[in-house]
Specification:
mainly alpha; 72% helix; Imelysin-like domain-containing protein
């Protein structure tokens, strides 16, 4: 007997799960590459533990609220708060990794604009770095994503959640940012 599944939601769910698995694999590969690097940061400054713990707590709360499918206005505000916290973390990050300054400063200047952009432009310009200067150290990329992913959720929430797929997209953004956060946390400690 052969069973045929023609359920679009099931297919979408499977693609989302595949996307999460691919993102986790890519992050693992990035972390392996970074661990073999011999370049040491030029400056050693203490990192604000409060900013790191606040970011982690806010990201986990946002993820839980996305999974509960809270209203778009609440998720928009919560993701905006996470963007604001990311800016504090990035400031600390540049102190320890000055080689990321130009890259992360350009991102910081665009932070208020990003959530108002079309999702395709956010993807090409900030996820894929099309609007950012080149970076010299892979650790810079992980730090950048602490701002870009919640800003993307903010943009999704501004458009509104009319389908489950939008909640799934927002969830994937925050799952991925938590993985990037782990890389940043290790780099700062």
């Amino acid at each position: 007997m052969r069973i045929v599944i023609n359920n679009k939601d099931f297919e979408d769910s499977m693609y989302k799960q595949l996307g999460i698995a691919c993102a986790a694999l890519a992050l693992f590969a990035c972390s392996e590459k970074e661990s073999t690097q011999t370049t040491q940061p030029e400056a050693k400054a203490p990192v604000t533990e409060n900013a790191l713990s606040q970011y982690k707590s806010q990201a986990k709360s946002l993820l839980a609220n996305i999974r509960e499918q809270k209203p778009a206005s609440e998720l928009e505000q919560e993701s905006a708060n996470l963007v604001a916290t990311s800016r504090n973390v990035l400031s600390d990050f540049v102190t320890k990794y000055p080689q990321c300054k130009d890259y992360l400063d350009a991102l910081d200047k665009a932070a208020d604009l990003i959530p108002s952009l079309p999702l395709e432009e956010i993807e090409s310009g900030y996820h894929e770095d099309g609007k950012l200067p080149k970076y010299s150290d892979p650790v810079c990329y992980h730090a950048k994503d602490l701002l870009v992913h919640p800003a993307t959720v903010q943009a999704i929430a501004k458009l509104g959640f009319t389908e489950n797929a939008q909640y799934q997209d927002a969830e994937l953004e925050i799952v991925e940012v938590i993985a990037h956060f782990d890389q940043v946390e290790r780099a700062l400690n």
